Amino acid sequence: MKVVVISGSPRKNANTQILMKYVYEYTKTKGQDVKFINLSDGQVECYRGPDEEYNQATKDAAKDIMEADVWLIGAPIYNSFFSAALKNLFEYVNYKETEGKVAGMTILAAGNIGFIGVQTLLTQLLSYFRVITNPKAVFLTTESITENSVSEEGQTRLKEMVDETLEIAEKLED
Question: 3-state DSSP call for residue 133?
Fold first, then answer.
């Protein structure tokens, strides 16, 4: 099974990046073919339309998403929404190539507010792509990250999300 892990924050020192790097490393231990798209790298260009030419990193990110069976998405909450950079990434994705894929999500906020709203928005976006979403999203606050590492409780919850999302995908393959 092909898996893509997406860190949806464009910030250079993003807490979302820390969480999703943990998810990436854990998912690799599950024997999956895993790719990591880190929007903190600043390599994915702003979408300008379907007939434009884009850099290789942007093309590769879109290809990795469309080829993956499972998407593990980390979304920060910025002003009650997920990041514009994450939405921009999905402008490159062809909905005709994504039906039946499975996604799990992690949502990160500074405090305990806005999780359900952002989960709903992200689930609606994924529904447009006909992606089956694991209903058990992981909600974490920035307090779960210290010195560039994820708290034990955060690690447990992230592992459960990965395991459950992969399990859903495996059941759908049968």
Answer: strand
pLDDT reading at 174 higher than 80: no
At 81-134, the pLDDT tens digits run 999 999 999 999 999 999 999 999 999 999 888 899 999 999 999 999 999 999
Contact 30, 89 (CB under 8 A): no
CATH class of 2-173: alpha beta
Where is pLDDT greater, at 112 or 168? Answer: 168
d(CA 29, CA 50): 37
Q: What is the token pair recorded at 161?
A: 């999300």
Taking alpha carbons only, the member of 105, 141, 110 closest to residue 123 is 105
Task: Give the pLDDT confidence of 14-44 residue by residue, as tens digits.
Answer: 999 999 999 999 999 999 999 999 999 989 9
d(CA 77, CA 95) in angstroms, rounded, equals 24
Which pTM value belongs to this model?
0.95
In the chain, where are the structural domains located?
Answer: 2-173
**Which sign does the torsion angle of CA 25, 4, 128, 168 carry?**
negative
Report which DSSP code applies to 77.
Answer: -
Tokens 């799990």 correspond to 104
Cα–Cα–Cα angle for 120, 148, 142, rounded to 5 degrees: 35
